[in-house]
Design brief:
It catalyses: Endonucleolytic cleavage of RNA, removing 5'-extranucleotides from tRNA precursor. This is Ribonuclease P protein component. Keywords: Endonuclease, Hydrolase, Nuclease, RNA-binding, tRNA processing. Belongs to the RnpA family. The chain is α+β, with helices and mostly antiparallel strands and 138 residues long. It has one domain: Ribosomal Protein S5, domain 2. The chain contains five helices and four strands. The chain has a four-stranded mixed β-sheet, with helices on both faces. Strand 1 and strand 2 (29-35) form a beta hairpin. The longest helix is centred in the middle third of the chain and has 20 residues, at 55-74. The model is unreliable at 113-129 and 133-138 (pLDDT under 50).
């Protein structure tokens, strides 16, 4: 389980990350990443709507995303907020695919720069951005 310091809990924090964060689109998730002060804990939030499936399916997807975020915190991630919105296709995605998408968003170079010019730009529009095989559907 994520520590309280690693969770986004207030609606205002969710809103600010989604509105002002860099958007990273994947096949099964849309992530919003916003940089914070250097040295602060990484914080994660999850949005899994009823469009994803029944309560059992939604909780499975949420638990998988939380497990990946726990891995990320354990490996020393810090200085950003990440909100992950699960798309309906996330219900059929396996753990490694969701892991790849979340880690790709967490390592987005726009967070390190804190660039506002590239805000809301899709990573897939970058010509040299590596795309994992799971995302391409290969």
């Amino acid at each position: 389980m994520l520590a309280k310091a690693n969770r986004i809990t207030s609606a205002d924090d969710y809103r600010s990350v989604v509105r002002r964060g860099a958007k990273v689109a994947g096949a099964h998730t849309v992530s919003y990443v916003r940089s914070r002060e250097a040295g602060t804990d990484a914080r994660f939030g999850f949005i899994v709507s009823k469009k994803v499936g029944t309560a059992v399916t939604r909780n499975l997807v949420r638990r998988r995303l939380k497990a990946v975020s726990f891995e990320s915190v354990a490996s020393g991630a810090c200085g950003f907020d990440l909100v992950v919105r699960a798309l309906p296709s996330a219900a059929d995605a396996d753990f490694t695919t969701l892991r790849t998408e979340l880690l790709r968003a967490a390592s987005d170079p726009r967070v390190a720069r804190g660039s506002s010019a590239s805000r809301r730009a899709d990573v897939s529009s970058t010509p040299n951005a590596p795309v994992p095989n799971e995302v391409r559907g290969a």
